[in-house]
Write a structure and sequence with these properties.
heterodimer, A: 4-stranded parallel beta sheet, B: 214 residues, alpha/beta, Methyltransferase, Methionine Synthase (B12-binding Domains), Chain A, domain 1, binds cobalamin
């Protein structure tokens, strides 16, 4: 059980009938069995063969239906992520909805100067600090790529920075199985051992195959390492509509599912029952600007379908929220963040990353994280549904007040607000009249969000990490950086 | 130009814009039969059509795949026209060796740049992705390429570009080839820093820069 009650929407969105879902699934099975895929990892190919797949003379692996069915039946339909201290924090599965940031943004709107500048390591620390303080951010991804650092071992450094600056569970990116191995070692130290880490996973690894239908050695090696270590993994392709997938929504989902499910077959054959997260990223190539849109309506259509398919297959899903194509912290940002985030909540999408993304996955802004947090808070209320007990139906209260009366002084009103469901209070959105708003500085949402970010950054950070653990972790990362096996190909 | 000749040119333009190779070929053939100067067919027909397709893309009136189809249709027409053009005009824009650097699988942008360059008349030798500095340098030597285009989409893989430049230098090939770099993390200042000859933010600009460099 989680220490914090998970949010599960009472108001839900679902639009696909069983017949449609069956058609989509069957089409994905046909792609797996007839088209096949390129798997660039010998051991993985052998494992897949043992799982019933064939390696054919064209070099492609073909996956038959029973292999997929077996993997689906052994994969858990839920798993839990634990925080730095080992407390249960996210129960991923069912319609539970969680939010967090994305990774690797190359640019940031500086929270102090507003300048658009290359990302640095201290941005990762700030992202973690901000998420730690926000009640509706459940996990942390780096949010930034430290462009000032030597790329060798950079993802291990990133991991360490996140770990030091927040206690919430992490979602991580690694370059290969070598740095991933070090990250697992550090997490195991934090837990007090490999078995303890397996029992109480501290992070989920985000691994991507390459659309169309290609599974590079590094991706597969990371997937297998996660299976072995019992570390939860999301094996999620990012086909771009019309560029690396068919342009049709259904075709995009079918291909993406085939890519993800091949990963599932491999992963479950290696470690039946190990935690696996299903997903297909919803990218759309804008066919005029050439930009990979994170907020195109076609992408949203695919997303609705993918999340419904995940529920239908009984797998926890990888989702997306809180991002925009806008280059500014403006009304477009608000609108796109709102739409995608609301969709995730209505769908009961489990792990929703990329909060704080703008400008096609290249720029980050802490203000956007704060704005998304507010939006999630508001909609948790909306989607909890209306209670309809006698107290809520309030017939006797209506009778007591009668025609031409008012409710302001009625005890029911006060009780309801103070002890009952209350009224959702904005922390950023304006509810002041014009005069008061002007008196308070006439601040718009962007400025209020900026000030909130400042306040969080000025407040005390999370409890520091045990210095012995920290020293050990730093040693491990230093060894990785010095290893001839890692880092930039240069 | 007479009205019929003018009409033929218009037809060629329309066919290129529509991305239909057969009518382009038919149009070029008719133009040649009607005695239209081949240079005029090229400049006022095929090239003008591509310019207008580019403008249409800028205005959002066509999609990227439309441009690719137009470029291919244009190339079909050009193939027919080539033997009739003078030396100078018929020369291909040059050979470009292109690839995504080692350690990097991102190839959508690189593919797009390749399609646009071949649409603009370059011979494109596409080495795919995960290309080592050695492989770039060997391909430049083997194809006698005047241009090398490298794409990197990860901060971690950008150093391969500078390594390739060093290797070109070491093999005494640097002076014979113009080096163009691009990809989301790559900036003009990075290009300057590593000593590349050009950088472009997108595929359309890449064509313009490539043309300037050769
Ligand atoms: C699609 C995508 C993927 C796909 C790639 C599929 C493929 N076949 O290419 C997949 C899912 C496989 C992928 C994997 C990863 N990705 Co990725 N990916 C993207 C994404 C969303 C879009 C890239 C794209 O296709 N854009 C569309 C094309 C048309 O545009 P473009 O590539 O920018 O190219 C244009 C220009 O740059 C220019 N150009 C490009 N090349 C050249 C070359 C020359 C010579 C010239 C002149 C111009 C030029 O012209 C092009 C056309 O206009 C970007 C975000 C982004 N906005 O860039 C992240 C992004 C690049 N990925 C990122 C990351 C971190 C990864 C992974 C490490 C993630 C992981 N968990 O494993 C892996 C890395 C795998 C590897 N070793 O390479 C980060 C990089 C961060 C950084 N600082 O390095 C980004 C920025 C997203 C993010 N914020 O996390 N990714």
């Amino acid at each position: 059980m989680s220490d914090v009650a998970p949010f599960t929407p009472a108001v839900r969105l679902s639009h696909l009938g069983d017949d449609v879902k069956t058609r989509i699934f069957e089409a994905a099975l046909r792609v797996l069995a007839d088209v096949g895929a390129s798997v660039q990892h010998d051991e993985a190919v052998r494992l897949l063969q043992k799982a019933g797949c064939s390696l054919d003379s064209d070099g492609l692996v073909r996956v038959p239906r029973p292999a997929v069915e077996r993997a689906l039946s052994s994969a858990p339909n839920a798993f839990t992520l634990y925080d730095r201290d080992g407390a249960a924090a996210m129960e991923l599965g069912g319609h539970n909805v969680y939010f967090g940031t994305g990774s690797d943004l190359m640019w940031q709107y500086d929270p102090h100067t507003g300048e658009h500048r290359p990302s640095r390591l201290d941005d990762i620390a700030r992202v973690a600090r901000v998420c730690e303080a926000l009640p509706n951010m459940d996990f942390v991804m780096s949010g930034a790529y430290p462009t000032e650092l030597d790329p060798r071992g950079v993802y291990a450094v990133t991991f360490l920075t996140m770990m030091r600056n927040c206690t919430k569970p992490l979602v991580i990116v690694a370059e290969s199985e070598i740095d991933l191995g070090v990250i697992i070692d550090v997490a195991a130290d934090v837990r007090g051992g490999r078995d303890q880490l397996r029992e109480r996973p501290y992070f989920l690894a985000y691994v991507e195959p390459v659309s169309p239908l290609s599974h590079p050695a590094e991706s597969v090696a990371k997937l297998l390492l996660c299976a072995d270590a019992g570390v939860p993994v999301a094996y999620v392709p990012a086909p771009l509509l019309g560029a690396t997938s068919p342009v049709s929504s259904a075709g995009h989902v079918v291909q993406g599912m085939a890519e993800c499910l091949l990963g599932l077959v491999l992963h479950q054959h290696r470690a039946p029952g190990a935690p696996f997260m299903f997903g297909v990223n919803q990218g759309t190539l804008d066919m005029v600007s050439g930009q990979p849109s994170y907020a195109a309506v076609e992408g949203f259509m695919n997303y609705l379908t993918v999340v419904e398919m995940a529920k239908w297959l009984g797998l926890p899903n990888w989702g997306i929220s809180g991002c925009t194509d806008s280059q500014a912290i403006d009304a477009q940002l608000g609108l796109e963040v709102g739409e995608l985030t609301l969709l995730s909540m209505l769908l009961g999408s489990n792990l929703n990353h990329d909060v704080g993304f703008m400008g096609f996955g290249l720029t980050g802004a802490l203000e956007e994280i704060v704005i998304t947090d507010e939006f999630v808070s508001m909609n948790k209320k909306l989607l909890s549904g209306i209670p309809v007990q006698d107290e809520d139906l309030a017939v006797n209260v209506i009778a007591e007040v009668g025609p031409k009366g008012h409710y302001l002084r009625h005890p029911h009103t006060r009780r309801y607000l103070r002890k009952g469901p209350g009224q959702w209070r904005p922390r950023l959105l304006n509810r002041d009249n014009r005069d008061r708003w002007v008196e308070c500085g006439g601040l718009d949402l962007r400025e209020k969000a900026r000030r909130k970010v400042q306040a969080i950054l000025e407040s005390e950070g999370p409890p520091t990490l045990d210095p012995v653990l920290l020293a050990l972790a730093e040693e491990r990362v230093a060894a990785l950086k010095a290893s001839p096996k890692v880092g930039s190909p240069s | 130009m007479s009205t019929t000749r003018h009409a033929i040119i218009e037809e060629i333009i329309e066919a290129v814009v529509e991305g239909e190779p057969e009518p382009v070929i038919a149009g070029v053939r008719r133009a040649l039969e009607a005695g239209v100067d081949p240079e005029t067919v090229l400049n006022d027909g095929l090239t003008a059509a591509m310019t207008s397709v580019g403008d249409m893309l800028d205005r959002g009136e066509v999609f990227i795949p439309d441009v690719l189809w137009s470029a291919e249709a244009m190339q079909e027409g050009l193939a027919l026209l080539l033997p009739h053009l003078s030396e100078g005009a018929s020369r291909s824009a040059g050979t470009v060796v292109l690839g995504t650097v080692q350690g990097d699988v991102h190839d959508i942008g690189k593919n797009f740049v390749g399609l646009m360059l071949s649409g603009a008349g370059f011979e494109v030798v596409d080495l795919g992705h995960d290309v080592t500095a050695e492989a770039f340098v060997e391909a430049v030597a083997e194809h006698g390429a005047g241009l090398l285009g490298m794409s990197a989409m990860l901060t971690t893989t950008m150093p391969v570009m500078s390594r390739t430049l060093q290797l070109l230098e070491a093999r005494s090939l640097r002076s014979g080839v113009r080096v163009l770099v691009g990809g989301a993390p790559v900036t003009q200042s990075y290009a300057d820093k590593i000593g590349a000859d050009g950088w472009a933010i997108d595929a359309t600009k890449a064509v313009a820069v490539a043309k300037e460099l050769v």
